[in-house]
Amino acid sequence: MSPVLYLIVPCYNEEAVLPVTAPVFLEKLMGMIQREKIAPESRILFVDDGSRDETWSIISALARQDAHVLGISQSRNRGHQNALVAGLMEARERCDITITMDCDGQDDPEVMEAMVEKYLAGNDVVYGVRSDRDTDTAFKRSTARWYYRLLRWLGAEVVYDHADYRLLSRPVLDALADYHEVNLFLRGLIPLVGFRSDAVPYSRKARAAGETHYPLGKMVALALDGVTSLSVKPLRLIMGFGAVVALVSFIGVIWALIRAFSGHTVAGWASTTCIVCFVSGVQLISLGILGEYIGKIYLETKGRPRYIISRRTWEE
Ligand code: UDP
Ligand code: MG
What we know:
alpha/beta; binds magnesium ion
């Protein structure tokens, strides 16, 4: 029997691009249903992430026109990762597989079919992996490469050049529901959940219309979240670094005592200043790293909901 697919598409202020891409997604879905790759109960589930423009009215109109389109709306903007989880958890009980995909047409919808094939071949997770980064700026290309390396080095399992275009099966969604963390970094979390996985290559296109919602600040925040929610190695690095500084200081103390006892007590302004600056810098960075983790603990202990769904197209 062909699986029921829910295509989860997060949208934030996407009035410019939705009218262009939604028909493409729908056509693809209908094609797959016709070819009996997926069940007729398959749906596209748009998740409006608290948009302030016409996104929600576009989604409701699409849902009225075609029963294969559904939409939910978050009560406010909570970010891409939370929108994804909202959609995944909403779809969990109704489908066999989900595919998460950006709404701007950057993730090639043609690849969905290959993902479903891999699922039918026995995989529970299928990662969409970029075959090239031609549409990225040189800056994004090199920072992304270094970032993946850093994550790997810190011990986080991440799939190289994979963002959030992926297929998940029902068992994976059920397992994911048991992860209650509010600091979400799905591309690091999914490998932790496990299950048999495979990847399909795709070429990431340029945005069909509109603008990115990931300016540098948000990207850095996501990158930091990725590190601190996947690895505690930075804390250990502080300790290692602290030990090295302590050792150097100890040698420095002995050197200073020897100099003092042998009568060479010269006014060492430069060396004192250097030491003070260096040690206080190290301490501040260490405190910052500690603070980052404590902040995460604080947010986790509150256990606030990760998403609040305020509207559903099928309830209106
Ligand atoms: N998005 C979202 N909430 C946000 C920011 C973005 O749901 O707060 C959605 C957005 O509508 C798009 C996807 O996440 O479908 C990826 O965002 P975008 O295309 O702006 O990022 P980029 O592809 O440039 O990294
Ligand atoms: Mg995009």
